[in-house]
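Quality-control log, excerpt.
Job 1 of 2 completed; input and output follow.
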Amino acid sequence: MLLDLAAAYALLMLLLWSANHVSYRLIKHRVLSERRWDYNICCGTTDGGGVNADIVQHADLRRFELVTDVTRLPHAAGTFDTVLCSHTLEHVDDPAAMFRELQRVGKHVTILVPPLWDLAAALNPFEHRVIFLTAASRHDDRLPPFIRYTPARWLQDQFGQRIDADTRPSTGATSRGFALRPLFDALMPVAWGGAAILLLLEQPAGPMAFAVAAVVWWLSKRQQPLLG
């Protein structure tokens, strides 16, 4: 019975990782590479090709701009033709206010948010302040409906809000956490998938594989909080 539960948990972890990988890696990479983005707000470690702006400098990016208030950007109305805001609005108290500011400085605004099928992100209580009620990650010139994530807000008010920037090695990011995190992140599907298979086949190595997968998962999360 215990091994069956462990196998089900390993499969769940694999599914959660896969959904998050599609949402945060594949879709995001495709959108970033489709054009030169004039303004890449809350860029993390990604270079949009134009002005890259964020409240913290996570990497040595070209044309980086440090901003202190995402609802009062230091640009005139209509300064940028294209604005990209990737996986940021879910972190702020008032996404509508930030989106209005993006529409003020940009003629065309594209946002990426965690879709509901990416449960690991959409229901992340340590980082996110709202839950977007949408099955699509990308939205052009529109803000999808959302609700306040009240339990998460209480948790973050008590212990601080955690925000992890993208740490892919190709970006040349300055490390603020565990330098090998990208390696362990890549090993996640192998670790959990292997553990699930061994447990389902009732192999003696199943429990050990499960323990290894748990360690890999923990190491993949070794990042320092940036806020709070």
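Job 2 of 2 completed; input and output follow.
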Amino acid sequence: MADPSGTARALSAVPARPPASGPVGRLLSGPRGRAAAAARRTRSVADGAALTARSVLTPAGLAGIAVEAAWCAAHLAVYPLGVLGERNAERNTYGLEGLAPMQRGLVIGDVEAAGTPILLVHGMVDNRSIFTVLRRGLRRRGFGRVLSTNYSPATNDVRTTAADLAAQVEVLVAESGYERIHVVGHSLGGLIARYYVQRLGGDERVHTLVTMGTPHAGTLPAYLWPAELCRQLRPGSDLYAELEQPAPGCRTRFIVYWSDLDQMIVPKRNARLDHPDIARRNILVRSVGHMSLPIQPRLAREISDALSQLHADGSTMTQGVTPLVAAPPTSRARKRSRTAPPGRARTGPTGKSVDRPAASHERDL
């Protein structure tokens, strides 16, 4: 369980943003403004502590802690294997020989979805071995090109690593023949991929970005270490200020998994993504620790369903799948939606049914 007093000390060290100029700036920088900011920090600490207590002090929470401990021990055992370079073990996704019925179903139903490359990006001081279970699950469900990448465990800058990721994606695109791919990022890997998508033009190459336990708004444990990377991961850092800038026309769709038992993200809700220009789906995963997120069978099923049921424009093609929330529609799109018969699903370019936009972009798993 998180230490509320330690969290409070870390929150008090969060640098304040430069105040606005004029009367508003004078109000925010005055005693009343500082008191209001302190009250907000206190509420954040209290809410985070209450969420942690509710998550841990339940049978499911205790079971989640046990799974987290067991998986961390197992991951340490297989960690050295992840240091080795990945073998090129791609299969011919257009052939049905040797495929299980589940794999065959995806290939027959949507050969393009089955062949679209999925690139897995690990977190801080980790390697591709964290995706051992998830990669097997995605392949078992028919995805033929599931690849993982390693970046240096000594990396100290999100921007530099994102540029390296951009180069790897270009190589993958050239080798596979697919102009757009999917990316799944765990922890820091999701933030690196997000920076690539938002700031380096990666939305031209990444169709869907799935993040698990990613500090989209920073995390307070980053104050415990003075490294440059940790400074970037602190709430309100210049990196997050850059990511908060407008991203008009961003084509990538985000699926964001966050957990109420994530010990690395404080407060927990900082693993959610809120940006007005990004189509996103925030999904709360209950009673799962930070390192255990990539080994959850329910996440593998959800990710498989999402990546096999998304049209090229990012909309869902099957009723019952939670739709992504995009930026507000244009006046022309609103006019088209008003002409659609009430209570009936719209159809996409392929004629398949498309869910109406959801009123809420968040749900529990």
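Post-run check on job 2. DSSP finds 13 helices and nine strands in the chain.
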